[in-house]
Amino acid sequence: MKKILLITFLLINHLSCADTLLGIYAGAQAGFYKSSGDLKANNSNYNQAFSKIDKNSINSSSFFIALEHGIPLLPNIKLRRTNLQVDNFVNLELFCTLDFPNRCFPETSLDLSHTDLTLYYELLDNWVNLDLGISALYFDGNIDFDTGLNADVNYAKLVPAVYGKALFEMPITDLSTSLTVNIGSASNASVSDIELAIQYKLSLGFTIEAGFRKQNIKLTQFNGTDLDFNASGVFAGLNFHF
Questions:
Q1: Is 17 part of a structural domain of the chain?
Q2: Least packed by Cβ within 10 Å: which of 76, 81, 100, 156?
Q3: What is the pTM (predicted TM-score) of this model?
């Protein structure tokens, strides 16, 4: 009997450690945001253009995959892609006037899509989960002015950031809440990305989630342009763990 109990204990212990030794997480989100901010341009193509960014409805999507393991000292890794675009946000009444014809770019669009590479350590793994690490956010979009000239501003910018995620599992339920933060800065750029979510665990490793996400992106002195952009709103997602 003692041998049977011992074998059972070792088997359970082995199975519980398997997830710690290697866990793969993947997921996707769809976001529905409101944008705000300022876009200024001052060079030969834009002629001191100024636009107030104010659009009530923009759609965004993001995808991620993460690998967690039990190897000491080596960080876990997470890769996330966020697609974020804003089209036709110039206020025609303010900027498309006879007094300021060179400020009239009604079809101006922003592409602020970026990829996050995060290295992190899992400091707590119980009903409270805590991850801390660093991120590198790579922006590879553009600002497209409707000028009729070759006036696009293309940028490739890498912004280092501090990463943190806290997840709280609610006892006797399949519910949990989480707070995820990415905050960083570099020359000519700063970023903050804050996400608050609630999750519900389904069967077969699936989890559904919904929450609120707020992003602030500042880019200065890119070919004479200065951008201060905010997006905030709700999202829904589906995650999978195996």
A1: no
A2: 156
A3: 0.81
